Amino acid sequence: MNDIALFFGSLFGMLSIVFGAFGAHLLKKKLTQDQLQSFETGVKYQMYHAITLLVLGFNLKESSSIDIYIIYSFIIGVFLFSFSIYGLVLSAANHKKMKFLGPITPLGGLFLVLGWGLLLYQFLINF
Predict the structure, then answer these.
(1) At what angle do helices 104-126 and 33-59 cross, to 10 degrees?
(2) Residues 21-54 pLDDT 10s
């Protein structure tokens, strides 16, 4: 389980740098200020959770079922939340907005909240 957390933490971290640079340099002229801010929100949340996955991957002592749920909640949450924002912003900028992605963003947010809630629960039961 640690390897999965470390792999996705590294992947999400690397991609957040790439997407952040892409947004700051190439999309700056193409996106509205609101679109750019939404894109940056996706990048920030992706990086926050990349770091969280790395910390978890380096610190988990055993792979209990709750650890597995925490890690998968963060991985699924980042993918649904951040990547749906990227899709919405880029498709809107190209005047072909993929509206079906709209409901996916809050679903990704729920997975992120679930991951944090499970992490809090784990701390409380081990406290």
Answers:
(1) 30
(2) 988 888 888 888 999 999 999 999 999 999 999 9
- Scored b (16 or more CB within 10 A) or e, 12-35 reads bbebbeebbebbeeebeeebeeeb
| 118 sits in which H/E element | helix 104-126
Single pTM value for the model: 0.92
CA distances from 34 to 18, 66, 84, 88, 108 (A): 20, 37, 16, 12, 20
What does the alpha-carbon distance between residue 47 and residue 25 come to, in Å, rounded to a whole number? Answer: 18
DSSP the chain: -HHHHHHHHHHHHHHHHHHHHIIIIISTTTS-HHHHHHHHHHHHHHHHHHHHHHHHHHH--S--HHHHHHHHHHHHHHHHHHHHHHHHHHHHHTT---GGGTTHHHHHHHHHHHHHHHHHHHHHHH-
Q: At what angle do helices 65-93 and 33-59 cross, to 10 degrees?
A: 160
